Amino acid sequence: MNILALILSILMICAHINILQPDGMEKIYKDDLEEALAGASTENSTVIIAVANQAYTEGDKPMLDIFLDGLWLGEGTQKLKDHILIVAVDQTAYDRCKFLNLHCYKMKTDGVEFDGREKLFMSDDFIKMMWRRTLLLGDVLKHGYNFIFTDMDILWVRNPFQMLMLNESLDLQISVDKFNGDEWSENNPINTGFYMIRSNRKTIALYDEWYGQKDNSTGKKEQDVLYELMRGGAFERLGLRVRFLDTLFFSGFCQNSNDFKEVTTVHANCCRSIKAKVHDLMEVLHDWKKFKASSHDNTTQFQWSDHTACLDSWKQQ
């Protein structure tokens, strides 16, 4: 090998490693996931994770674009984009993510190929994708990263970190479909579309047990299995401290927050199709822009538009 070829080889290796630490030492990542997490992480090793497939990244107004619009229009949310890692299920979603200059990771599906079509709620492909997501998120914890997981059909109209308890004694803070008034009550109906979780031995054990139920849970989505584990005493047995998030702040279509001055996230839950979610989330953005343009003196005049498309989505086959 001549000198020029040797130099080119060294440059290619350095380009692959790509990052120098402050002390000048080269940082070598053990895998692609660790590199992606490090790129999006905050200083305290926390990442915001959302999952996208082709159906969420194509169309006149893709769900991914609506999600980003929410961050742009929200209060104190613009800079959070730097800490979001988009996990792409397919190549189309990955390409769109890279085009938008976001932090992106292509999820390895281990021989299970998900096409770009919409995965209707509770369809077989929907359930498979939810379980594959659970496996990946458990791997994130094993890499030593805390994370907020957010479904992409959630608008962040305020910075949720300001409403989440950041002390290390809390292992999991999770959203609910309808809040029962007690943020420590396991009678709350959990929703795995939004939660914050810390990486520690207890949460890793939870994810291992959770994913371990997959083959014994035919026809159940991963959220149902986690709820059953909770009701069966798994949280207490593992020593987990769990907080259930009030829908006044972390709201959704199942239970609206009626306080525009307090609402932090709006989730298009209780909705079956992407088309319906897109329609009604656009209405939410319209309502939010009207609120921001007002004097805010009297919030009682502000109400969310009816989620008509999502209500109608359950009537369609």
TrEMBL record:
Keywords in alphabetical order: Signal, Transferase
GO MF annotations, alphabetized: transferase activity
Signal sequence interval, chain numbering: 1-22
Matches recorded under InterPro entries: At1g28695/At4g15970-like (IPR044821), Nucl-diP-sugar_transferase (IPR005069), Nucleotide-diphossugar_trans (IPR029044)
Coiled coil (UniProt feature): none
Residues in Nucleotide-diphospho-sugar transferase domain copies: 81-281
Pfam families in the cross-refs: Nucleotid_trans (PF03407)
Family note: Belongs to the glycosyltransferase 77 family.
PANTHER family: EXPRESSED PROTEIN-RELATED, NUCLEOTIDE-DIPHOSPHO-SUGAR TRANSFERASE DOMAIN-CONTAINING PROTEIN
Name the UniProt record assigns to this protein: Nucleotide-diphospho-sugar transferase
Gene source species: Artemisia annua
Higher taxonomy: Eukaryota, Viridiplantae, Streptophyta, Embryophyta, Tracheophyta
